[in-house]
């Protein structure tokens, strides 16, 4: 925590506000970055200028694991991370990287908005952080240079770029593909040159990162719904009065609702744009076959981590 | 055996160990990179672990090599201004520099590095499942090696003994 | 505390340490730590500098740097450089001032392979020095040509300068940077040849004897494996057959096999090459590590944004701002080596250039070219030192002879800055730009 400014929200005044740093490694025009900016404005307004959220965007303070280290040390106060990245500190978060937990967007939001999930987000204070809210990152699917993916066998032998998380290499490996971990920035040229055959992400990657120029088939396998999390360090959380803690939580929740709408709109735009780029969307995917093929991975994680098993049951109960 | 001989022997042994470890890692990384290409084009299934292993090995190689370069006073510095001062001032600056390097190694590499290693202890890598805390132990290890190197250098500064070995670099 | 105060502390501490003779890497690290201590408690400040120094070098792409240094060292020891000089001799032997042109051409060829201007200046300079002396060349003139042309290899791929820049610039495509370097690098070589031509005509240095077809073919054949390396490594990287790091690994294997085939490297030589590579790796990577600490502190305290705002409020014309940037870079280049200069100034100047609408690939070329000029100026010029060292003349003798080349290279720098097509044309045609 910085040595200047107010230490706690109780002693904070508009003249000497409590400044909270928020690290985010998405670009400033990303839908979720805009939600974070609106969250910061909201907090400042609701607190009458006593609490100021200072956002460091574009990954200025480092990659997600490094920033989580900084959060743990109390150097940054809040950060937005992809949910499975938190598994380092609470293995339960591995769950969000596992395939086929949700059937639809509606179900995903139902579960994520449930009181049980909110309770889970708050349960990790002893591990150095608490979840304030989640943001949707859509459903992730496989996209390739030219191979349509309808059933697991279509993936056999394909070199696919995955995110640097064990859950991702595990389930893509289980489908018979060869997972390749590489920096996201290298993916475009690797697709272009055929160093890899495909990758997996949501539809916006086709347009925002121009991958639609070099991979022409997007197969709607919708294998994972990996949310982003807005987390706050326990040390910082303890410096907030109960009223201000509530204020922050409410502002966070409100930003999620705004982000949902903006995200859905963005996906729609991306799909339309991608079609113009000549990307073909494959919709007749045998989801059940994929679910069956990857189920052992889910079971293995549940067996290995009691926290995963617990969160899976939270998801199960939230699904009604 | 004089003190100087003993210290020179320490320098030779330390230098030999650092160079051997860093050199071995360098060759190992070259082989891993080549193996990665080989598995992709010849075997058709790219080895996934090489990328991660190489990343960690590079931290180790760099830190050990940095310690080696401190031992031989090879780090890039700007000396044209220092060389214009009177000899006693120059000597003061040289000793001050070597002490500062030692303090930096203790504060940032040994203390900061230990904090980093401890905080990343439960952070397991995606593919090999090794603890990143283990990877980051090289900070304190290299830090201690630099402390040894600087003690030798400072002793040399104070006694005015000529460095026994100097190597050409580019 | 404001960003400009932080900037004053950071750069003030850095400059004091730098000019006191503290290693550049340690000056960067200590200045970052001191600045961080103004904002954070000591344990946080220590942790963050320690963290950034480790994660700053945890990068697969950065491995290309030590591997290219490794390959360059093998080439130097393994007789590959000499074969390239022989080829250059045959190629331009009939032009007046042949040995000077040979020097430029060989530096372009060899520097292109080794990726190091210093290695190039040493290898080519020492090979040609005696022959120039025999032919009656003024050794100071010869050294000046060698020093001026050695840095072409920092622009012409493969080049570690581009890889370092790509890393600090946030992953700018190495392939695009590699292709962007050809035109400015070749332009640089041509300008030096032209200036050398003017001077040698006045001096009436002898042409070389005519070389028979058989001899020419033999020399070419001997140089082919070395030349092929450029095709394999640069081609492989640019066309995406492998990454820059893998290309560098292949360069090591290739040069090693070649050196063994030539029987020009003993086991002892190899050990020596490894040790030299370890030393260079330690220097460069520790610098990169320390600069990562500085980058974090700069981002946290908002320094780059504050500098950009200040500069844009002082001058509002794009041309004036660009000229100011060039001036800063040329001044920096006089006393700083290329790697630390790229590491320190990219985070500060890249945002400004983006504000001006420059492509990061274009800005990278401007930055590298400005630093190329810096490597040949006193008081700190690695290429100047090595280049004069191998020809046995003093720096005072060489610098006056270098002045016309400086003038020519500054014209090239202005052209590369204000004509983006010189850098972006080639990568653009190949579809490497975003
Ligand atoms: Na080069
Ligand atoms: Na210079």
Automatic annotation (TrEMBL), chain B:
<keyword id="KW-0997">Cell inner membrane</keyword>
<dbReference type="GO" id="GO:0022857">
    <property type="term" value="F:transmembrane transporter activity"/>
</dbReference>
<dbReference type="GO" id="GO:0005886">
    <property type="term" value="C:plasma membrane"/>
</dbReference>
<keyword id="KW-0472">Membrane</keyword>
<comment type="similarity">
    <text>Belongs to the TRAP transporter small permease family.</text>
</comment>
<dbReference type="InterPro" id="IPR055348">
    <property type="entry name" value="DctQ"/>
</dbReference>
<feature type="transmembrane region" description="Helical">
    <location>
        <begin position="92"/>
        <end position="113"/>
    </location>
</feature>
<keyword id="KW-0812">Transmembrane</keyword>
<feature type="domain" description="Tripartite ATP-independent periplasmic transporters DctQ component">
    <location>
        <begin position="29"/>
        <end position="159"/>
    </location>
</feature>
<dbReference type="Pfam" id="PF04290">
    <property type="entry name" value="DctQ"/>
</dbReference>
<feature type="transmembrane region" description="Helical">
    <location>
        <begin position="12"/>
        <end position="38"/>
    </location>
</feature>
<dbReference type="GO" id="GO:0015740">
    <property type="term" value="P:C4-dicarboxylate transport"/>
</dbReference>
<keyword id="KW-0813">Transport</keyword>
<keyword id="KW-1003">Cell membrane</keyword>
<protein>
    <submittedName>
        <fullName>TRAP-type C4-dicarboxylate transport system permease small subunit</fullName>
    </submittedName>
</protein>
<dbReference type="InterPro" id="IPR007387">
    <property type="entry name" value="TRAP_DctQ"/>
</dbReference>
<feature type="transmembrane region" description="Helical">
    <location>
        <begin position="133"/>
        <end position="155"/>
    </location>
</feature>
<keyword id="KW-1133">Transmembrane helix</keyword>
<feature type="transmembrane region" description="Helical">
    <location>
        <begin position="53"/>
        <end position="71"/>
    </location>
</feature>
TrEMBL record, chain C:
<feature type="transmembrane region" description="Helical">
    <location>
        <begin position="219"/>
        <end position="242"/>
    </location>
</feature>
<dbReference type="InterPro" id="IPR004681">
    <property type="entry name" value="TRAP_DctM"/>
</dbReference>
<keyword id="KW-0812">Transmembrane</keyword>
<feature type="transmembrane region" description="Helical">
    <location>
        <begin position="277"/>
        <end position="300"/>
    </location>
</feature>
<keyword id="KW-0997">Cell inner membrane</keyword>
<keyword id="KW-0472">Membrane</keyword>
<feature type="transmembrane region" description="Helical">
    <location>
        <begin position="140"/>
        <end position="165"/>
    </location>
</feature>
<dbReference type="GO" id="GO:0005886">
    <property type="term" value="C:plasma membrane"/>
</dbReference>
<feature type="domain" description="TRAP C4-dicarboxylate transport system permease DctM subunit">
    <location>
        <begin position="11"/>
        <end position="422"/>
    </location>
</feature>
<feature type="transmembrane region" description="Helical">
    <location>
        <begin position="362"/>
        <end position="385"/>
    </location>
</feature>
<dbReference type="InterPro" id="IPR010656">
    <property type="entry name" value="DctM"/>
</dbReference>
<dbReference type="GO" id="GO:0022857">
    <property type="term" value="F:transmembrane transporter activity"/>
</dbReference>
<keyword id="KW-1133">Transmembrane helix</keyword>
<feature type="transmembrane region" description="Helical">
    <location>
        <begin position="177"/>
        <end position="199"/>
    </location>
</feature>
<feature type="transmembrane region" description="Helical">
    <location>
        <begin position="320"/>
        <end position="350"/>
    </location>
</feature>
<feature type="transmembrane region" description="Helical">
    <location>
        <begin position="405"/>
        <end position="433"/>
    </location>
</feature>
<feature type="transmembrane region" description="Helical">
    <location>
        <begin position="248"/>
        <end position="265"/>
    </location>
</feature>
<keyword id="KW-1003">Cell membrane</keyword>
<protein>
    <submittedName>
        <fullName>Tripartite ATP-independent transporter DctM subunit</fullName>
    </submittedName>
</protein>
<feature type="transmembrane region" description="Helical">
    <location>
        <begin position="55"/>
        <end position="72"/>
    </location>
</feature>
<dbReference type="Pfam" id="PF06808">
    <property type="entry name" value="DctM"/>
</dbReference>
């Amino acid at each position: 925590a910085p040595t200047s400014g107010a230490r706690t929200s109780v002693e904070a005044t508009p003249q000497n506000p409590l400044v909270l740093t928020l690290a985010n490694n998405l670009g400033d025009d990303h839908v979720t970055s805009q939600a974070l900016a609106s969250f910061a404005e909201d907090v400042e307004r609701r607190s009458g200028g006593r609490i100021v959220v200072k956002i460091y965007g574009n990954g200025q303070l480092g990659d997600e694991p490094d920033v989580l280290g900084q959060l743990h040390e109390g150097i940054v106060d809040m950060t937005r991370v992809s949910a499975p990245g938190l598994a380092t500190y609470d293995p339960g978060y591995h769950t969000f990287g596992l395939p086929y937990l949700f059937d639809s967007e509606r179900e995903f939001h139902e579960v994520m908005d449930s009181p049980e999930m909110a309770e889970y987000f708050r349960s990790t204070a002893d591990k150095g952080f608490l979840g304030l809210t989640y943001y949707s990152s859509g459903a992730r699917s496989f996209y390739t240079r030219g191979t349509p993916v309808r059933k697991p066998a279509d993936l056999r032998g394909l070199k696919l770029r995955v995110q640097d998380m064990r859950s991702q290499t595990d389930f893509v490996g289980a489908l018979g593909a060869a997972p390749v971990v590489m920096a996201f920035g290298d993916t475009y040229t690797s697709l272009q040159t055929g160093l890899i055959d495909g990758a997996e992400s949501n539809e916006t990657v086709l347009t925002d990162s121009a991958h639609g120029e070099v991979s022409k088939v997007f197969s709607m396998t919708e294998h994972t719904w990996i949310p982003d999390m807005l987390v706050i360090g326990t040390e910082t959380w303890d410096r907030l009065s109960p009223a201000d803690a509530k204020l922050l939580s409410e502002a966070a929740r409100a930003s999620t609702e705004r982000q949902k709408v903006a995200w859905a709109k963005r996906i729609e735009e991306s799909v339309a744009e991608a079609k113009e780029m000549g990307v073909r969307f494959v919709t007749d995917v045998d989801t059940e076959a994929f679910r069956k093929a990857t189920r052992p991975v889910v079971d293995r994680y549940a067996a290995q981590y009691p926290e995963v098993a617990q969160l899976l049951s939270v998801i199960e109960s939230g699904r009604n | 055996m004089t003190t100087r001989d003993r210290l020179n022997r320490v320098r030779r042994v330390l230098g030999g160990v650092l160079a051997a470890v860093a050199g071995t890692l360098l060759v190992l990384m070259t082989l891993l990179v080549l193996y990665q290409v080989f598995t992709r084009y010849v075997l058709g299934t790219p080895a996934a672990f090489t990328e991660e292993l190489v990343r960690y090995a590079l931290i180790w190689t760099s830190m050990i090599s940095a310690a080696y370069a401190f031992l031989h006073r090879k780090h890039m510095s700007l000396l044209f201004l220092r060389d214009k001062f009177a000899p006693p001032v120059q000597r003061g600056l040289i000793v001050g520099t070597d002490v500062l390097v030692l303090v930096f190694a203790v504060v940032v590499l040994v203390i900061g590095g230990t904090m980093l290693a401890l905080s990343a202890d439960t952070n397991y890598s995606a593919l090999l499942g090794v603890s990143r805390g283990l990877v980051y132990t090289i900070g304190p290890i290299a830090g201690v090696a630099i402390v040894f190197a600087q003690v030798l250098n400072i002793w040399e500064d104070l006694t005015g003994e000529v460095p026994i070995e100097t190597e050409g670099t580019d | 505390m404001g960003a400009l105060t932080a900037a004053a502390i950071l750069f003030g501490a850095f400059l004091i340490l730098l000019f006191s003779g503290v290693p550049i890497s340690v000056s960067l690290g200590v200045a970052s730590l001191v600045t961080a201590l103004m904002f954070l408690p000591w344990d946080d400040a220590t942790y963050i500098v320690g963290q950034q120094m480790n994660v700053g070098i945890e990068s697969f792409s950065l491995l290309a740097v030590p591997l290219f240094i490794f390959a360059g060292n093998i080439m130097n020891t393994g007789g590959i450089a000499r074969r390239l000089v022989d080829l250059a001799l045959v190629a331009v032997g009939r032009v007046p001032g042949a040995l000077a042109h040979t020097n430029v051409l060989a530096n372009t060829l060899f520097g292109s392979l080794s990726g190091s201007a210093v290695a190039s200046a040493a290898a080519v300079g020492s090979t040609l020095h005696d022959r120039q002396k025999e032919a009656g060349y003024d050794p100071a003139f010869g050294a000046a040509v060698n020093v001026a042309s050695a840095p072409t290899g920092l622009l012409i791929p493969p080049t570690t300068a581009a890889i370092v820049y790509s890393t600090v610039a946030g992953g700018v495509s190495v392939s695009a940077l590699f292709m962007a370097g050809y035109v400015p690098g070749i332009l640089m070589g041509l300008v030096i040849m032209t200036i050398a031509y003017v001077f040698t005509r006045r001096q009436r240095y002898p042409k070389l004897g005519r070389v028979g077809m058989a001899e020419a073919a033999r020399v070419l054949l001997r140089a082919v494996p070395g030349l092929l390396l450029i095709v394999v490594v640069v081609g492989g990287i640019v066309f995406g057959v492998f990454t820059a790091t893998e290309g560098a690994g292949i360069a090591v294997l290739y040069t090693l096999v070649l050196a063994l085939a030539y029987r020009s490297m003993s086991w002892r030589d190899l050990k020596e090459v490894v040790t030299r590579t370890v030393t260079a790796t330690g220097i460069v990577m520790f610098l990169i590590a320390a600069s990562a600490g500085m980058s974090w502190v700069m981002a946290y305290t908002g320094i780059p944004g504050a500098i950009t705002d200040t500069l844009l409020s002082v001058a509002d014309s794009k041309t004036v701002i660009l000229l100011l940037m060039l001036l800063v870079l040329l001044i920096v280049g006089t006393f700083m080596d290329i790697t630390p200069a790229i590491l320190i100034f990219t985070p500060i100047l890249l945002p400004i250039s983006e504000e001006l609408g420059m492509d990061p690939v274009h800005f990278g070329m401007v930055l590298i070219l400005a630093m190329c000029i810096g490597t040949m100026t006193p008081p700190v010029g690695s290429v100047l030192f090595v280049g004069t060292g191998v020809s046995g003349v003093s720096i005072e003798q060489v610098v006056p002879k270098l002045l016309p080349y400086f003038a020519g290279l500054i014209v090239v720098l202005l052209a590369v800055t204000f004509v983006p097509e010189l850098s972006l044309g080639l990568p653009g045609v190949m579809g490497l730009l975003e």
